[in-house]
Design brief:
phosphatidylglycerophosphatase activity; binds magnesium ion; PGPP1/Gep4; 6-stranded parallel sheet; HAD_sf; HAD-SF_hydro_IIIA
């Protein structure tokens, strides 16, 4: 449940071809430390907009599911031109409704994020294809450093031979 289906080093690795090869038609993205560094308000990285445009042009559906507060979520949703669900309650809640609104099933969706205990666990619980990315910043909530240590430990012990 805590093992991602794939680990990548940058979002740009998720090309339409990469997604199609795995039968994926949609991408549900985490916000903080996945799309933008935690706590940052802007500016919008040009490369990020280009990557999102390339997915949309290929007919890939994209949305944000985040535990962040509504104000911050809306701020980034508007700037990135994406539907966003705030205060999602990951890992237990938040994915099913968004995936349904995309008109897809969980199996057709990549859930992408930087945290095992919210993004990967939540995505695995609904049966999505989970993708772990390195965090954009080490900043986060006060308990994040402990979480990161646990994550590294889990990734080591569950690594495939
Ligand atoms: Mg995150």
């Amino acid at each position: 449940m805590l093992r991602p289906n794939a680990q990548i080093t940058a979002l740009s690795e998720l090309t339409p071809e990469w997604l199609r090869a795995r039968g994926l038609k949609g991408v549900v993205l985490d916000l903080d430390n996945t799309l933008v560094p935690y706590g940052e308000e802007g500016p919008v990285p040009e490369a990020l907009l280009e990557w999102l445009a390339s997915l949309k042009a290929a007919g890939i559906k994209v949305a944000i599911v985040t535990n962040a507060l509504p104000g911050r979520a809306r701020h980034w949703g508007e700037r990135l031109g994406l539907e966003v669900r705030a205060l999602a309650g990951k890992p237990w809640k938040g994915f099913r409704r968004t995936i349904r609104r995309m008109g897809l099933t969980p199996r057709e969706v990549a859930v992408v994020g930087d945290q095992l205990f919210t993004d990967v666990l939540g995505g695995n619980l609904v049966g999505a294809y989970t993708v772990l990315v390195p965090p954009l910043s080490e900043k986060g909530l006060p308990h994040t450093r402990l979480i990161r240590r646990l994550e590294r430990c889990i990734l080591r012990t569950t690594a495939r031979p």
